[in-house]
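Q: Predict the assembly, please.
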Amino acid sequence: MFDIELVVGDLTTMAVDAVVNAANSTLLGGGGVDGALHRAAGPQLLEECRGIVARQGGCETGDVVITGSGELLARYVIHTVGPVWRAQVADRLDPLLASCYSRSLELAAAHGLGSVAFPNISTGVYGYPKERAARIAITAVRSFGRRETSIRTVIFVCFNDENAVLYRRFLDAASAAES
Ligand code: ADP
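A: Predicted assembly structure:
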C-alpha cells in the first residue's frame, strides 16, 4: 500500500517521478491542465508527443502513453485520455475513467517509479460530475494500492476548492473505514 496525499495547487510544479496529463486523443496539446503542462515543459514535450503520434497514432480514451518531461521538475509525463461526460452512457464511461488512473499507475510501476501526481481527470472541459469522478479516482487508486509495486506515493492535485473538499471528504471516509 502506498501513501495517498492531497495537494491543492498546480500540477506543473510537482517534483514527483511522474505527473499525469489529462490529454486529448490527438496528444497534440489542448487547454486546461494539458496546455499548462505543455507551456511549463517547453517544446520538447510536444516533440515527444508528435513522435508517439507518428508511431502509433494518438491515444484512446482510457489509455496511457509516457514521455519525458522537458523542463518540468517531474521526470516523466504520463498522458492519459479521460472520457467526455455524457449522462446517457455514464455506465460505459466510468470504467474508462477508472482505467485512466489504474493504467497510469501500471505504466509508472513498469518504469519502476516511486511517486505519481494526478489531476482531476475529465472534470474540466470534459465535464464529468466532480463527485462521481472523485469517487472513481479514489476507488481506482486505492484498489491499485493493494499491489506490491515500486510506487510509494500517489498525490491527487486539486486545482479548485470544490474538488479539494470532495477529495478530502472521500479520502477521510476511506481511511476511517479502514481503521
Ligand atoms: P479534461 O479535458 O480531462 O476535463 P481539463 O484540463 O479541462 O481536462 O481539466 C481537468 C482538471 O484539471 C480540472 O479539474 C481543472 O480544474 C484541472 N486543472 C487545470 N489546470 C491545472 C493545473 N495547472 N494543475 C492542476 N490541475 C489543473
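The beta strands are 3-8, 18-23, 64-68, 76-81, 115-118, 153-158. The mean pLDDT is 97.
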